[in-house]
């Protein structure tokens, strides 16, 4: 059974995350379905994509599928990780991707939202960046996605506390473009998509790619990269990652000592 649904109408493609039993966790299988959908959207020259949940429930997406995170001693967020691949697919899709959000957004799903081009949300939305609860060492590409988009103070607070941020504040700090009443969310989102779909697709595609490349244009030498990777290795080889994953599986608070 596919874990997403898609629709195309008026040059607008909609991608519905449709696995609420697992709170739309971004599993390998779900990501494969997204890639197939995105390929289809490209073939049909879709001019704007809306990324939403198929259900109007209290969770938009629970983020990375924790059951698929590897055991301690293995990099939990390598280049080929499903979530990493999903982020690249969204960022390089040659037309704008609009996130339409109702409900809570967790961990890697926050990065997915940040990777979208425009974010429409209602008042039920919250954002929690949770790797510090799991002991997951975030990767350089992930940090760059956040720091190229949000103020450093906000990024730090979210990563350090892992606490959910409510919609009103998320609007103020720039995570959300438009915060609208739940009853208007769909209409407002598709109005935006229709406007974009009327504009020059070749120009927009070139803008999106230019903004992506320029916002990622951070020069670090290989030595610095290895240094950052070494910092991450200490975390995923260390006790916190093992404890974080075990606590999640046992449905308890992690104990990272004092
Ligand atoms: N991965 C795998 N399974 C998940 C999951 C996840 N992220 N989130 C939920 N599930 C499963 C859960 O185990 C349960 O399965 C079902 O979805 C319903 O969840 O029915 P089963 O087999 O027991 P639950 O918890 O009963 O639903 P709820 O009471 O409605 O609570 C919803 C939330 C979202 C609050 C709760 O499920 C939750 O806290 N999920 C984890 C959120 C999270 O911490 N995500 C971050 C994942 O890490 C991540 O993205 C990374 C790697 N990161 O940030 O670096
Ligand atoms: N370039 C050349 N001529 C212009 C012009 C422009 N950007 N804007 C107005 N004119 C001329 C118009 O052709 C008319 O000339 C006169 O100014 C009064 O305009 O009398 P003429 O010879 O017919 P108009 O439209 O009658 O005035 P208005 O009814 O008061 O309306 C004003 C606006 C500003 C709303 C209207 O003129 C308009 O929409 N202009 C174009 C606005 C626009 O799209 N600008 C973006 C230009 O592109 C740009 O900056 C680039 C390259 N970009 O964004 O990358």
Description:
Helices cover 48% and strands 16% of the residues. The protein is globular, with a radius of gyration of 18 Å. By secondary structure, the protein is an alpha/beta fold. It has helices at 28-43, 82-92, 108-115, 131-134, 140-147, 152-161, 167-173, 182-198, 201-215, 222-237, 239-249; strands at residues 4-9, 12-17, 48-53, 59-61, 97-101, 104-106, 118-121, 126-128, 165-166, 178-179. The mean pLDDT is 95.
Order of helices and strands: EEHEEHEEHEEHHHEHEHHHH
What is the CA-based Rg, rounded? 18 Å
Q: What structural category characterises the helix and strand content? A: alpha/beta
In spatial order, strands of the major sheet run 1-2-3-5-7-10
Listed once per kind, the bound small molecules are: ligand KGA
* Biggest β-sheet description: 6 strands, mixed
Shape: globular
The total count of helices amounts to: 11
Q: What's the N-to-C terminus distance?
A: 45 Å
Compute the number of strand runs. Answer: 10
- Strand percent estimate: 15-25%
Catalogue the unreliable spans. none
Helix content: 40-55%
Mean pLDDT: 95
